[in-house]
From TrEMBL:
Keywords: Oxidoreductase. The lineage of its organism: Bacteria, Bacillati, Actinomycetota, Actinomycetes, Micrococcales. GO terms for molecular function: oxidoreductase activity. SUPFAM superfamilies: Flavoproteins. It is an enzyme of class 1 (oxidoreductase). The keyword Oxidoreductase applies. PANTHER family: CHROMATE REDUCTASE, NAD(P)H-DEPENDENT FMN REDUCTASE LOT6. Its EC number is 1.-.-.-. The keyword Chloroplast does not apply. It holds the Pfam family FMN_red. It comes from Nesterenkonia aerolata. Residues 3-147 form the NADPH-dependent FMN reductase-like domain. This is NADPH-dependent FMN reductase.
Length: 179
């Protein structure tokens, strides 16, 4: 059984990225366990916390270190990824010398109402994540544009997006297993 942890950078009511995450979970191969690494309760990281690292942050790191691969589902805010995503990544690498990301397979997906999906936010994440020692899956990518036309009110994705999600998560699971 391969275990994929996922972080969703938006927890807004009706979030299209929450819907995309649910689609990816539903499309994961049968022999894959998908684990929600919820970031909603994480405090804002600051270096002053390294000396007395909060338990909620340590628990998050422990849950992340137990997975075989990490999927980041990110929205795009003002042509960048949201602070919540960066905060989660920072926590996974702190205090210094205790990063759980070294060697971890990582990929990114996202959706937005705009035509280009989350290309800008994903591009920025692709710039710095490899510097943290992750094993990054470069392709395929999943940046879904026009989210308002892709997801039904009940959160289900259209057939094309569902198929793209199936291929994407299957490719990531294969990438993780190839280790």
């Amino acid at each position: 059984m391969t275990t994929i942890g996922y972080i969703v950078g938006s927890w807004a009511e009706g979030s299209v990225n929450q819907k995309l995450a649910r689609t990816l979970v539903a499309q994961a191969p049968e022999d894959t366990q998908m684990v929600d690494l919820d970031i909603r309760e994480l405090p804002l990281y600051g270096r002053h916390l390294d000396e007395d690292f909060p338990q909620v942050m340590q628990d998050f790191k422990d849950r992340a270190s137990a997975v075989d691969g990490l999927l980041i589902v990110t929205p795009e805010h003002n042509q960048s990824f949201p602070a919540a995503v960066k905060n989660a990544v920072d926590i996974l690498t702190r205090p210094g010398g205790t990063s759980v990301l070294g060697g971890m397979p990582v990929t990114i997906a996202g959706t937005s109402p705009g035509r280009f999906g989350t290309i800008s936010s994903q591009s920025q994440l692709r710039q710095f994540l490899p510097m943290l020692g992750v094993r990054f899956m470069g392709s395929p990518n999943l940046a879904v544009g026009g989210a308002g036309d892709v997801f039904a009110e009940d959160g289900t994705a259209d057939a094309q997006t569902t198929e793209r999600a199936r291929k994407f998560i299957a490719a990531f699971v294969d990438f993780v297993r190839a280790g």
